[in-house]
Amino acid sequence: MTSSQTYPYRVVDVFTERPLEGNALAVFPNGGGLEDATMQSIARELNLSETVFVLPATRPDAAARLRIFTPTREMDFAGHPTIGASFVVLDEGILPRDTANFVLEENVGPVPIRVEQGRRPLIWLTTPRIEDGPTLDRNLCADVLGLEAGDLLNVAPQLLSAGNPTVFIPLKDRQAVDRAAMEMAGVKRLKGAYSKPICTFVFTPTPEGAYSRMFAPEHGVLEDPATGSSTGPLAAYMIRHKLVSGAPGTRFVSEQGTKMHRRSILHVHIGGADTIEVGGYVTPLVRAVMRLGGEV
Q1: Is residue 295 over pLDDT 80?
Q2: What DSSP string describes 182-250?
Q3: Does CATH number 3.10.310.10 belong to domain 4-126+281-293?
Q4: Which of 46, 77, 149, 271 is an S-S bond match for 108, by CB 3.0 to 4.6 Å?
Q5: Is 50 a catalytic residue?
Q6: Using 50, 70 and 90 to split pLDDT, how confident is the model at 192?
Q7: Catalytic residue (choose from 17, 35, 50, 223)
Q8: Fold observed for domain 131-261
Q9: 289: alpha, beta or left, given left = phi > 0 and alpha = psi -120 to 50?
């Protein structure tokens, strides 16, 4: 019999306090020794929005390094893998469970983590630096979403990125958000000459903050239940256009994934000096072992 190796992993639901809601994530607490191609194959096999591998940090200020994969590509930064991996790092004892602040190393750079203790931990990440991209034509955006121009707010859609380029398109109400649809042909029309893979984020302002959906067919994700990497730039976009208060200390939520029956609640905290934190609860679901190589 050919020798094999086993890799324990966890499945957790992120941005929810209820099992089988939020955004499911696979976390391999000990991803050391896995080749890049194997990590990608595992992510494709599990076919979740993302799979994350925890590795030893290469930076002295980081507790661990994360490699994050969608079913089709590696990500420089992603929010729900960062929040979910933070929970597992604490739950598995890689860091003491009462650790309040630490740093995770990702391809985008160091990502500070803050744990707000309570009945259950609320885990916050600090959004990496947000970069402005081009604005887009409202009529084009309406057309590629299968909507009318009147379904959009009178605010210019724009591409923003905190490591995951995203086009933000504000809509008038929840019904318009739920009617929106996106296919690969539409993504290509939105991108134009932009070379990197993009996400398309539609939302409408609500009294609580925002009601949102996100499409990412270029990443192998038709629709994402919760997108932490896009929620920081969402907050920046909403503040810029006075759709939400930008006062330090402001907190609001983005409800995402409801249309696809994976309701997610992404918390946002506006700090000082242009700091935007995105936070969420994590619900553990599965402990499992993956066996690679050998014969059954």
Answers
A1: no
A2: --HHHHHHHHTT--S--EEEEEEEETTEEEEEEEEGGGTEEEES--HHHHHHHHHHHHHTTSS---TT-
A3: yes
A4: 77
A5: yes
A6: confident
A7: 50
A8: Diaminopimelate Epimerase; Chain A, domain 1 (3.10.310)
A9: beta
